[in-house]
Amino acid sequence: MAGEVLSQSEIDALLAALSTGEMSADELKKEEMEKKVKVYDFKRALRFSKDQIRSLTRMHENFARLLTTFFSAQLRTYVHISVASADQLPYEEFIRSIPKMTILTVFELPPLDGRILLEVNPNIAYAMLDRVLGGHGTSVNKIENLTEIEMKIMTSLFEKAFVNLREAWESITDIDPILKDFEVNPQFLQMVSPNETVVVISLNTQIGDVSGMINICIPHVVLEPIIPKLSVHYWMQAQKKEREPEEVAVLQQRLKKTEIPVVVELGTSMISVQEFLQLSVGDVIQLDQMTKDPLIVKVGEVPKFTGQPGKVRKRLAIQILDVIKEEDGDDE
């Protein structure tokens, strides 16, 4: 009964059985102990925690958004891709779950070992192919008769799309996806042993009026070096990482040495283009600034001070009179 929620009628029946003596408390306790024993299938070993699966799901939700943007631009039609599920299962079970003839592309992710598999449902693949060739996105399943041109177009399209995986994984590790193989029959593709645990990320995909699934199969051997980074603890540490005192000191020193322009504005004037073209050496331009009024001192392009002009050791100078306070933005 552990982990189960009883209805009110089941609770009443249980209390009635205890009160009438049909079931004793000892029998109930014994039944409780027996139900705690769970069957474990060594062929279906669970090598990833729920926390790690959630991290992988979060990473590939970002990947799905990147794919949506990429395919929308490439196919020039409505595209929507989202994560449907993330499960761990034996490689053999994954191969049995996909169509007997489908679009399979194999990628390496250096510096990680092993290879990962991208399986695209033929309906989706042909809708993409039709759009690339100028069609309306119609899906015609003739996967057994793929021409070399069709294979080349599909290979190029999925290779470019998978580059987005680098950005989706960058918070965990730097990878460089490389296309290694293209196949249509899963039986001819043996990446890992049948009992090897793999993580399968399933993506719901909509291309125009055609819908289907895209599956990403990631063997345990690929993820093994980065498994510690798939925990919430790692993510929180990465987010809360503070700069070392040495880094702060270096930044402060560099800021002190940064040069910024300081400009004193003597005034402004409005003249016509004709007058501007006729200007020559010795001409005088009347400014809208009175000699008794303070001048504006700009730091960069921002007015920061008011001052008055003068000389220091026969050099022109500006004496700061006041600081210009920043006004609050209007509420309108």
UniProtKB/TrEMBL annotation:
One of its GO terms (cellular component) is bacterial-type flagellum basal body. InterPro entries: CheC-like_sf, Flag_FliM, FliN-like_C, SpoA-like_sf. It comes from Anoxybacillus gonensis. Its main location: other. Pfam families: FliM, FliMN_C. Keywords: Bacterial flagellum, Cell membrane, Cell projection, Chemotaxis, Cilium, Flagellar rotation, Flagellum, Membrane. It comes from the Bacteria. Belongs to the FliM family. CDD domains: FliM. This is Flagellar motor switch protein FliM. GO terms for molecular function: cytoskeletal motor activity. It is a peripheral membrane protein. Residues 253-324 form the Flagellar motor switch protein FliN-like C-terminal domain.
